Amino acid sequence: MKIVEWHVITVSVAMFVTATGLFVYLPFISIKKEPTVTIAINIDELCRVDVAENEWQYVVLHHSATDEGNADNFDKYHRDEKKWEHGLAYHFVIGNGNGSGNGEIEVGDRWKKQIHGAHTANMDLNRISIGICLVGNFEANNEPTNNQLESLVSLVSYFSEKYHIPKSRIVRHSQVLQKGTACPGKNFPYKQFINEVSSLHPL
Fold first, then answer.
1. What is the edge-to-edge ordering of all strands in the sheet holding 58-63?
2. pLDDT tens digits, 144-173
């Protein structure tokens, strides 16, 4: 057998053995996945205020209808464009990682002062409802991030227990009797969210 032929056979066998070994080994190679981040939040500390507390009876859920943003951005818009004296319409804003942390809960001045929101066109409801806005446009193709939902569940569960708010009074903006709105969007997983809140605190 010629030397060239011998080399060709040797290389072919080596390649076959290597390929076979990789085929057998591949299933055992771990694929690196994006880690799941658990948000550690002291809700009681976050929500503590230095004034007399309002008797809150509802929670109203919103989306910002923007891809990014934070409480400061929305506060500036509501003060400069809407001309609202107290600025930010919501009591809380939960970030999506674009403008503030993914799942970060920002506390607005309306909560700190325990005053009405401006998050619906129904002023009577605004006086007794906690407005929470998740950054994102859930009427488009987006959904809340896992971190946003985790923070929202923790926050609403706390309010539900503290103020005795049943699930029938944890509503989407679109459920409020006012001019039509799709907020917080068709992709907001309302049933899943209510189920998760109920599992932590029976409503």
1. 102-107, 92-96, 129-134, 58-63, 170-172
2. 999 999 999 999 999 999 999 999 999 999
Q: What is the DSSP letter of 114?
A: T
Q: Which domain holds residue 94?
A: 43-200
pLDDT of residue 9 exceeding 50: no
Residue 10 lies in a domain: no
CA–CA separation, 68 and 74 (whole Å): 10
Q: Give the chain's radius of gyration (CA, Å).
A: 26
Confidence of residue 75 (pLDDT cuts 50, 70, 90): very high
What's the domain count of the chain? Answer: 1
Q: Is residue 14 in a domain? A: no
* CA–CA gap between residue 165 and residue 156 (Å, rounded): 9
What's 183's domain CATH number?
A: 3.40.80.10
Q: Can you tell me the distance from the alpha carbon of 44 to that of 179, in angstroms, rounded to the nearest whole number?
A: 34
Please give the pLDDT value at position 39.
53
Q: Which two tokens stand for residue 104?
A: 């970060």
Q: Please, which pLDDT band fits residue 4 given cuts at 50, 70 and 90? A: very low
Q: How far apart are CA 54 and CA 117, in angstroms?
A: 12
- If you average pLDDT over every residue of the chain, what do you get? 84
